[in-house]
Specification:
- The protein is an alpha+beta fold.
- It has helices at 13-22, 44-56, 75-90, 97-100; strands spanning 4-8, 24-25, 28-32, 35-37, 40-43, 67-70.
């Protein structure tokens, strides 16, 4: 089984507070083996609000393809949820960032 590592691009108190208040976090990187994932972390209230705003403005709501819902967007809950999902889902064949975007050496 591959090891899992969870990184926060900005691990400051300010980003933690802002993420909790905004209900989303986009700076999380998950590494499983050699594969990197960049999930969008949301609480259900924020996701619902964004959907309703798009609907009200007669727009199509575009959802992130790597979305993770958490009870609250704090570091502890994000880590707990990702570890739970890893045990249940990520052991199966889920594509990583590099599967969607090829890398090039210059």
């Amino acid at each position: 089984m591959n090891k899992i590592k969870i990184f926060f691009a900005d691990d400051s108190e300010y980003v933690e507070e802002t993420s909790i208040n905004n209900g989303s976090r986009h700076d999380v990187i998950v590494q499983i083996g050699d594969t990197l994932y960049n999930p969008a972390i949301y609480c259900i209230e924020t996701l619902t609000q964004e959907f309703r705003e798009a609907e009200f403005n007669n727009q199509i709501y575009e959802i992130d393809n790597a979305l993770i819902l958490v009870k609250e967007v704090n570091k502890k809950e994000v880590i707990r949820t990702i570890l739970f999902l890893y045990k249940i889902i990520w052991k199966k064949n889920i594509k990583g960032v590099l599967d969607y975007f090829p890398t090039y050496e210059i």
